[in-house]
Write a structure and sequence with these properties.
3 helices; 2 domains; alpha+beta; 3-stranded antiparallel sheet; 141 residues
Length: 141
């Protein structure tokens, strides 16, 4: 038989997962959400417990940050444009950006649509092999 502590841990995990799903749904469907959140810190708190991503930037040179998007259009059956999302397109609106800096740790809810900011002349040259964008991804959950 499970202990009360184990049962409570499962209940808290289920509540956190439900909060994460609710927050994600509201983030990508709410047009009035400034920066993707208009419902207060409570739903964000539940979401953060479930899925947290981290990213450490290791480049001294500019190699792009991390972009966050909000789904603004339902386009079932349409194929997305090739390449990384770097601006508002394909039914996604740019909602925010984390500026890269050497040794910066960026922490964000991982269920929010996001993309590396892969742009610039370096990505079209051999520099993408000799001096690539270096990051360390982290997952907390």
């Amino acid at each position: 038989m499970k202990s009360l502590k184990d049962i409570l841990a499962v209940i808290v995990g289920l509540i956190a997962a439900a909060g994460a799903i609710y927050y994600f749904y509201r983030f990508v469907t709410s047009p009035e959400a400034e920066g993707g959140h208009s419902l207060g810190w409570m739903s964000l708190g539940f979401a953060v417990v479930a899925f947290i991503f981290g990213l450490v930037y290791f480049n001294h040179e500019p190699r792009g940050g991390t972009l966050f998007f909000r789904n603004v259009a339902d386009t079932p059956g349409s194929a997305p444009s090739p390449g990384y999302l770097t601006d508002s397109r394909d039914g996604f609106e740019l909602a925010g950006r984390i500026e890269p800096a050497f040794n910066r740790l960026a922490i964000y809810p991982g269920f929010v649509p996001h993309s590396g900011e892969i742009a610039g002349d370096w990505i079209r040259s051999d520099e993408r092999f000799t001096n690539p964008r270096l990051t360390q991804r982290l997952l907390f959950g």
